[in-house]
Write a structure and sequence with these properties.
mainly alpha; 3 helices
Amino acid sequence: MNELKKNDEDPNIINEKQYLDMSNHLKELYDKKEKELEKLKEENTNLKKTIMSCYGSVRLLDIQFSNLLLEETFPVIIESLRSFLSEYIDHEILKVYEE
């Protein structure tokens, strides 16, 4: 009993409940940061995919320009690339959604 009284009186010693509360709080903070990190990783991956898609479209234009097949397919490829980038910028960067 004297030990319990002594622990309650000493402000530098924490009891089990305080320790458990601090542990739970730190776990919540850790879990929150982990979720944020996973979200950032997913956004990063999606951005990389978009950049690769745009690069592929530019490469197609370059190849077709080199082969002089550009007159027939140029407007279609440009319009597809513009549409894709416009949609991506609206939804992923500007966070604009149609209702």
